[in-house]
Amino acid sequence: MPPLTVLCLASYDKGHKFLQEAKRQGCRVLLLTSLSLQDTAKWPRESLDDIFYMPDEEHEWNLQHMLLAVSHLCRTTQLDRIVPLDDFDLEKAALLREHLRLPGLGETATRYFRDKLAMRMRAAENDIRVPEFTAAFNFEKITRFVDTVPPPWVLKPRLMAGAIGIKKFEGRQELWDRIHSVGDQQSFFVLERFVSGDIFHVDSIWHRGEMVYAVSSAYGTPPLEVTTSGGIFTTRLLERGCEPDRALRAMNEHVLKAFELTDGVSHTEFIRSHADGAFYFLETSARVGGAHISDLIEAATGINLWAEWANVELAAARNTPYILPPERRDYAGLLVSLARQEWPDTSSFLDPELVWRMHRRHHVGFIVKSPYRDRVEELLKIYADRVRTRFHASAPPREKVRD
Fold first, then answer.
1. Does domain 5-104 have CATH number 3.40.50.20?
2. Which residues contact 153 (CB under 8 A, 6 or more apart)?
3. Tens of pLDDT along 94-106?
């Protein structure tokens, strides 16, 4: 049997372990990526059979040109799978799969993992608790929403990732000013009641429509606050088997079954309201979580979500069982902050639990690991205090927080 040929799409430099695992398993691995990354990305060339570049402007591709280019490639190459390695590549992969009639999420199915309005509508249809929301298409419906739902409200871009572009409003006039200011882009937003609460995420592996693995974690400062106010980003695994852990993993399973994820990985976020203590669904994805969350999970469990994503995709392509690797049951915490210094000196952080440190311009970051969750919490607090005093900056020059 000839080896499987996998085409990976990557508009950003990420997913190296997916590429390496697919190659290790004997696949022919092709990469289509942004031309702007040609001289900077550190792709594992030994794991690539070929690499192709798309001209881009800030990682945006001309989709018609991409479609024609990949179709031209198919004259001489039989593709078996197309895999998007970044959130912004999901629509590209769906378009190609639809056109070339390849397995995987098509354009409608992909909407549930990219479009914040589609997510909320699908969740509500399946009795999954979500904050009150409305599409931003119609002025009358927006007026009815602000008349009946108390502020604050958040206006969210439907197709951006995470907290990018989200704005919070306390008053009607500032909300309407923002809606009018976006002009013809108005329909690309969703309006939602702001829920004050603690944010959690569940990262999971799916095979044949079943959740085969999930780990739940809690953010420190909410990501929206980090994005808008320049705080310090932290997250850590929850205590296994505690009430929030059980509730979150069950809710995650409910969400992704409703959204019909079959084979792949997901990063899903929930909020526990300060007002009523209930969990609400915020958003999901069909990819590995960003911001080094996969490194956090690997430090605690030994499971690399990028590699397991490749394993799940290949098991589906070969119609063979997927076998989850053994799990280590430590705890870990992650801290990332923008830094005033171009290359922060973190050599004074010497705790034996420190297993990873970031090396990136105008950033500082750590992962700590321990068999004891209390020790992880203690170290995150100590490190956050030290980082805030010695390094923290809200916005160093021209830096964009993205892994």
1. yes
2. 146, 168, 169, 175, 191, 192, 193, 194
3. 999 999 999 999 9
